[in-house]
Automatic annotation (TrEMBL):
Pfam families: RRF. InterPro entries: Ribosome_recyc_fac, Ribosome_recyc_fac_dom, RRF_sf. GO terms for molecular function: ribosomal large subunit binding. This is Ribosome-recycling factor, mitochondrial. Belongs to the RRF family. Residues 117-279 form the Ribosome recycling factor domain. It is found in: Mitochondrion. PANTHER family: MITOCHONDRIAL RIBOSOME RECYCLING FACTOR PSEUDO 1 (PTHR20982:SF3), RIBOSOME RECYCLING FACTOR (PTHR20982). Keywords: Mitochondrion, Protein biosynthesis, Transit peptide. It comes from Junco hyemalis (Dark-eyed junco). One of its GO terms (cellular component) is mitochondrion.
Amino acid sequence: MTLSSAAGPRYGGHTALPAMALALRCLRPLPPLLLRSAPPVPRGLPRAPGGCPAPLPLPGGCSRCAQHLLLSRQLATKKAKGKGQSQAKVNINAALVEDIINLEETSEDMHAVIEALKEDFSRNLSVRTSPGALDHITVVTKDGKFPLNQLGQISQKSPQLLTVNMTSFPESTAAAAKAIRESGMNLNPEVDGTVIRVPVPKVTREHRESLAKLAKQATNKSKEALRKVRSKSITQVKKSKNKVSEDTIWLLEKQIQQMADEAAAEMDKLLAAKTKELLG
């Protein structure tokens, strides 16, 4: 028996393969085809939070899923930063966390502290004396509290002298003089009938340095008010720890701290500019 006859009959000069071998050869391409027809499996997506009505990859998923996905991506971006590299700023969409905290309100509260410091610098800490410098002084009368410029007419007679004419409200003259004296502006008013004479002391180096110290104290006081706003906001966030993930809480705390740091930096700039103005 020859090798050809042992292998089987020939067709057209070629040896016929056994039926089983031929079937196996035909089936070999099927697994890749089946794999290509299967739906793609998403990789690297965060899991949906417990109780979510729709999985994350599907369009139209619930808002809770969208919030979780965005915050997870932000967290992953921050954690991906290597050591020695500056971390990206946290910037959470306020609309996604409005049921936890109102970040816009927190920002407004911090901005209000900055504006109060600016106003304090402008009104109380200036080496340039003008009639407007006395406008903000509050006078306590039997009828209530009123700004000095509503009770008397303030004018400047010379660079070293301001006057307040109390003719319209003569009964408040003594109270107005007391308010000027206790304003912290280092003024010693003199009452002459219904006219209050306010000598303006010459600006000395010592007075400038004193004003610079007051500016520093005012800034520290404002930073304390800023810390209270930050602490109040973080406390509010922590109240939701049973409803949202730890990552969400962590990101919100970072966002609030970042806002507070930026506000404090703005205060430092204001202090530096005011100190330069006062000391010359």
